[in-house]
Amino acid sequence: MNKLIDTVAWIHLRGGLVLGTRSHGKELFFIPGGKRNPGESDLDTLVRETREELTVRLDPDTARHFGTYEAPAGPHSPVPRVRMACYTAAFAGEPEPSAEIEEMAWLGYAERFRTPPVDRLVFDELLARGWIER
Questions:
Q1: Is 111 exposed, middle or buried (0-12, 13-18, 19+ CB in 10 A)?
Q2: What is the pTM of this model?
């Protein structure tokens, strides 16, 4: 059994807030992205997932690694841990919910409790770098 969910995520900020997405039937918001398919690179996964979830086209040439984080998956997950490689990147289009995404929200640091543990580490880093406000 795989003991780690390997994911890639796109950090998109606007006005000191982080874009979060909530899938149908879920309570928590996630930084957009998802699991890699076999043989995919981080950038392949990032471009595919953001196109599928948010209908935007990321420019892979502008992608910059923000950090990689690992945390417990959560109380209801059969897999104990999640690893999430995070990137920023320029894009074309306007993000809008698509595929399994039911809702988008712009989240400040005070809303980090509405995200899973690995995403909270990203919020902490964004705050430490001064990219979002408390």
A1: middle
A2: 0.92
Residue 77 CA to its chain's centroid (Å): 17
Confidence (pLDDT) at 76: 67
Positions in the chain short of pLDDT 50: none
Report the distance separating Cα 128 and Cα 63, nearest Å.
21
Decide: 11 and 88 in contact? Cβ < 8 Å.
yes
How many beta carbons lie within 10 A of that of residue 88, not counting itself? Answer: 16
Cα separation, 106 vs 44, in Å, equals 25
The token pair that represents 121 in the structure block: 């580490």
- CATH superfamily, domain 4-128, is Nucleoside Triphosphate Pyrophosphohydrolase (3.90.79.10)
Q: Report the C-alpha gap between 65 and 132 in whole angstroms.
A: 18
Q: What's the N-to-C CA distance of the chain in angstroms?
A: 39
pLDDT digit string, tens, across residues 70-98: 998 866 666 688 999 999 999 999 999 99
Q: What gap in Å lies between CA 26 and CA 90, rounded to an integer?
A: 28
